[in-house]
């Protein structure tokens, strides 16, 4: 089984492969603004979006990341 990674790590891998956030959002059939909200943990994706994330990532995204506590960055 593949090692599970967080959603931001998967998005970063997609970007490193030449697919920007708008392309990732389009593949998940969501708006770019929604992608940013998910990345910042301001919103948890619906079940339908979760299913698309799992499918698009090949099952490597750890869905538990969306439910873990949000950690604030200190400047």
Secondary structure elements and pairings:
Elements: H1 7-16, H2 21-27, H3 32-39, H4 47-57
Mean pLDDT: 92
Count of domain modules: 1
Number of β-strand runs? 0
Order of helices and strands: HHHH
> Describe the biggest sheet?
none
Poorly predicted tracts of residues: none
User: Between the first and last Cα atoms, what is the distance in angstroms?
Assistant: 37 Å
**Which of globular, elongated, flat, extended, rod-shaped describes the shape?**
globular
Radius of gyration: 12 Å
Structural class: mainly alpha
DSSP strand (E) fraction? under 5%
Helix content: 40-55%
Protein name: Helix-turn-helix transcriptional regulator
Organism: Devosia ginsengisoli
Offer a quick outline of the entry:
Helix content is 48%, strand content 0%. It is mostly helical and 75 residues long. It has one domain (7-67).
Question: Can you characterise this structure?
Answer:
- With 75 residues, the protein is an all-alpha fold.
- The chain has one domain (7-67).
- The chain is 48% helix and 0% strand.
- It has 4 helices and no strands.
- It has helices spanning 7-16, 21-27, 32-39, 47-57.
- The longest helix is centred in the C-terminal third of the chain and has 11 residues, at 47-57.
- The protein is globular.
- The termini are far apart.
- 12% of the residues are buried.
């Amino acid at each position: 089984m593949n090692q599970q990674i967080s959603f931001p790590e998967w998005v970063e891998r997609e970007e490193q492969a030449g697919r920007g956030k708008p392309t990732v959002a389009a593949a998940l059939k969501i708006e770019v603004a929604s992608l940013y909200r998910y990345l910042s943990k301001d919103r948890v994706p619906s079940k339908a979006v979760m299913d698309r994330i799992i499918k698009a990532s090949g099952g490597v995204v750890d869905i538990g990341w969306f439910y873990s506590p949000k950690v604030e960055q200190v400047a």
